Amino acid sequence: MISNNSTPPQRSWLLLRGLGRESGHWGDFPARLQAARPQDRVLLLDLPGNGVLHRQSSPAQIDAMTEHCRTALRAQGHAGPVHLLCLSMGGMVAVDWACRYPDEIAALVLISSSLRGLSRWHQRMRPVALLRLLSALISPSLQWRESQALALSSAQRPLDATLLQHWCAMQQARPVQRLNLLRQLLAAARFRAPQTGPSQPLLVLAGAGDRLVDPVCSQRIAAAWLGRHAWHPSAGHDLTLDDGAWVIEQIGRWLDSLEGR
Question: Is the pLDDT at 5 greater than 90, yes or no?
Answer without folding.
Answer: no
